[in-house]
Amino acid sequence: MAGLAGADAGAADDVARGGLAVRLRGVSKTYDNGVTALAPLDLAIERGEFVSLLGPSGCGKSTALRLIAGLSAPTGGTVEVSRGGADRAGHAIGFVFQEPTLMPWASVADNVGLPLKLSGLGRAEVAACARAALTRVGLADFAEVYPRELSGGMKMRVSLARALVTDPDILLMDEPFAALDEITRFRLNDDLLALWRGLHKTVVFVTHSVFESVYLSQRVIVMTPRPGRISAQFRIEADEPRGAPFRTSVGYAGQCREVSIALARASGEAAP
To answer: Do 51 and 119 fall into the same domain?
Structure first.
């Protein structure tokens, strides 16, 4: 995927030198049908930071991710993404979509290794990298099975492994756990935090769940309904590593309430 949209490579170098992974400056997006998804949006994300974009459906959260990924171009403003060095070109970003989008005819290992295969790597290297990525997400023993044999949570782990196989600097996640049951979702939240701590990636996570955003993030960005813009930001205070004690703590409940109130205000609703 492209590491830069709406700016030049020099700007990306400036972002990296400033300790930033992503910088959006005056970004707007209007689609061909006339719908404006994003109003002028300004956002800076530090390298290694875990940030959640929180807002109601249709507020432009996913559009912002696609602009960062280079899958779409902004109508106005600039989107600058650090490439992490010249040798990282093409591997700056990994993307986990809401649906796993796995090829049903291919094994788990082949699904995970596809980005490397498309980039021209040899078969042995692709296989080794796929095995390593599957080990990271706890699916080393399922390399040769097919997607139809996996649970929903396991399919999402495969999708995460595929995003990690290129060793990206930035991981973009678009409501990846929204369709899962609560127990599986909690488990994957914990696994994602462990990966983030271990791999030191920058994570931009889209969700409409206040509870998930507060549990996972260092910073929560509350967005308004379409056209999306930033209404409020919160630094989440929690001891690391996070786990069940944080999820059941008074501090967690209080921060969830603060974020819920801000989300209601941004949406023009009465505070909970």
So the answer is: no
Report the CATH number at residue 34: 3.40.50.300
Count, in order, helices (H) and strands (E) of the chain.
9, 9
Say if residue 170 is exposed, middle or buried (CB neighbours under 10 Å; 0-12, 13-18, 19+): buried
Q: pLDDT digit string (tens) for 80-120?
A: 998 765 444 445 899 999 999 999 999 999 999 999 999 99
H or E segment at 78? strand 76-81
User: Of all helices (H) and strands (E), which one includes residue 15?
Assistant: helix 9-17
Amino acid found at 35:
V
Q: Is residue 197 part of a domain?
A: no
The pTM for the full model equals 0.91
Using alpha carbons, list the distances in angstroms from residue 95 to 68, 195, 202. Answer: 10, 15, 12
Distance (Å, rounded) from C-alpha 109 to C-alpha 99?
A: 18
Q: Which residue has the tokens 């490439």?
A: 83
Which distant-in-sequence residues (6+ apart) come within 8 Å of 100 by Cβ? 147, 155, 156, 158, 159
The tokens for 262 are: 């801000």
Same domain, 45 and 65: yes
Average pLDDT, the chain: 90
